[in-house]
Every structure is written in C-alpha cells, then in structure tokens.
Automatic annotation (TrEMBL):
This is tRNA 5-carboxymethoxyuridine methyltransferase. Residues 51-148 form the Methyltransferase type domain. GO terms for biological process: methylation. It catalyses: 5-carboxymethoxyuridine(34) in tRNA + S-adenosyl-L-methionine = 5-methoxycarbonylmethoxyuridine(34) in tRNA + S-adenosyl-L-homocysteine.
Length: 278
C-alpha cells in the first residue's frame, strides 16, 4: 500500500538530484514560463498570496517572492523545511515567507485567507490519495485564483518502459521499484487530473509537457547537440501534441470561477512569523 512520502531521510539528496541537474533546469525553465503567464493574469492583485504546497526548498516560489509577492510554504518534511529556510534566507527573502510544517491535506488549518496562486508541484505522485489532496488545495484557492499542478505522467512512464523493453514490468502494472528511492511511487494519468480540475468547476488555462524528449535520449547516443539546444527544443515542443502528453511530468494550470465560495477563512491570523510548526 502506498503511503504519503516524507523526505526527512533524503532531503539533501533529493534537493541536489532534483534541482542541481539538467533535468531540474529544464523543469524550472518551462514551468517558469507558464508561471509568468499566470502572474500576468493575476497582476491586478498585488502583492499576491502564494501557497507553495509540499514546496520542498521553494525554488520557483522564491522567484515569485523576488517579484514582491508573499509566500506560505508547507512541507511534511521538517528536514526539507530546514533546507528551505536556509535557501530562502541566503536569498534575502525570509521576510516574505511563512514556513509551515504541515501536510498539504491539513494546510487549510494554518491559513486565514485563500491563496491567489497555489503551487502543487511534483507531490501527487508521492501521496496515497492524490485526488483528495488536490481537492483540499482547490478549496484553498480564492475565487478567480489559479492552481498550478505538476505531476509525474503515466504516459511518460509507460513510454519510457516501452522503449527500454520493460514489457514484463508493464504487464505487471509498473509497480514502484523500491530500489529507486527518488523515483515517484506512482504515475498519474493526465485525464484523471484534468477531470478532477474541471469537475471542481475550474477552467484549465494551459498544459505543458516537462521534459518531452530529454529523458528518452540514450546516454550512449553520439549525437550532435549541446544542452542549450536541448533546452531550446524542449521549450519549442513542450506545448505541442503529441510531445506534451509524453512529458515525464505534465504541468497544468486552472482558474477557479469568481463565484465559487472558498472556505479558507477560519478566523486565524496570518502573522509575520516565518516558522509555524503547528
């Protein structure tokens, strides 16, 4: 049975392997392009309240904070929060952050107002019930606000196993291989995520494939290319089919109608303290 993954034991390795690699650079670049579109849409509300749910060290939310917005970042891992605090402090952004030691499912208990923008990136695939977690965060999105969701793509995992010849593994249902500790516990079908968003009344504004071909390139390939060319081509193809739907991750963002009620106001105060271990 899948349990919600806590990265206390792998926080340092996770941060290094996810953010300090070519994979991480491609991911940051293409998703940031989408976030710029979202911020332009919401620019009438300044400064924005950003909820970085399961935010790790907050790489992308720090870029948003640099623009003057305020961020609530929560994570289930206390060790990951310590890393986040160090990174945020090093970048001189701590005053704009509130760090909350909480699961994404329970973050509503720590908020006194809904978020203008919710970031929910690379978390669902580590949860026992990704649909429930997403629904909780949809409730914490203000009317007219936007949720930004990135998830480990079932189509990408299937395609990777197909081209590697792992047909028996596919026939077994592609169970999680525990020896690969940083491989997500499960892959999420895009059509499920899209329907969860639209069933809740949200309007999907955009979709982007994250690493549409980079991860399928053979390490022994003797091609004529540079990383800069790979990054440029990823940006060119990431919003086109069929490449979009083959991304190892998919980023989808959706807007909440202005007439939907958000039950996030629980009467507590969102003070200026930077750390909440509640």
């Amino acid at each position: 049975m899948i349990k919600d993954r806590n990265f206390d034991d792998l926080a340092q390795k996770f941060a290094k392997n996810i953010y300090g690699t070519a994979k991480g650079q491609i991911r940051q670049t293409v998703v940031w392009q989408d976030l710029e579109q979202i911020l332009a849409l919401l620019e009438s509300q300044t400064p924005l309240h950003i909820l970085d749910a399961g935010g790790g060290i907050g790489q992308l939310s720090q870029k948003i904070a640099e623009l003057g917005h305020r961020v609530t970042l929560c994570d289930l891992s206390g060790e990951m929060l310590k890393l986040a605090e160090q990174e945020i402090a090093n970048n001189g952004l701590l005053e704009q952050y509130r760090l909350v030691h909480s699961s994404v499912q329970e973050i509503g208990e720590h908020l006194n107002e809904p978020a203008d923008l919710v970031l929910f990136h690379a978390v669902m695939e580590w949860l026992s019930d990704p649909k429930e977690a997403l629904e909780r965060l949809l409730e914490q999105t203000r009317p007219g606000g936007v949720i930004s969701v990135m998830f480990y793509n079932y189509n990408g995992l299937l395609f990777k196993n197909l081209i590697c010849g792992n047909l028996t593994h596919i026939e077994e249902g592609m169970p999680h291989r525990k020896r690969f500790k940083l491989q997500p516990q499960q892959a999420i079908k895009p059509e499920d995520v899209y329907s969860w968003l639209t069933d809740a009344g949200f309007t999907i504004l955009g979709k982007t494939g994250v690493r549409t071909f980079h991860d399928y390139m053979q390490t022994t390939m003797v091609g004529d290319y540079s990383f800069e060319q790979v990054l440029e081509m990823e940006q060119k193809l990431c919003r086109q089919e069929p490449y979009l739907s083959l991304g190892r991750y998919i980023h989808v963002y959706a807007q909440k109608p202005s007439d939907l009620v958000t039950p996030a106001d629980n009467g507590t105060s969102n003070d200026n303290s930077n750390k909440d271990n509640g």
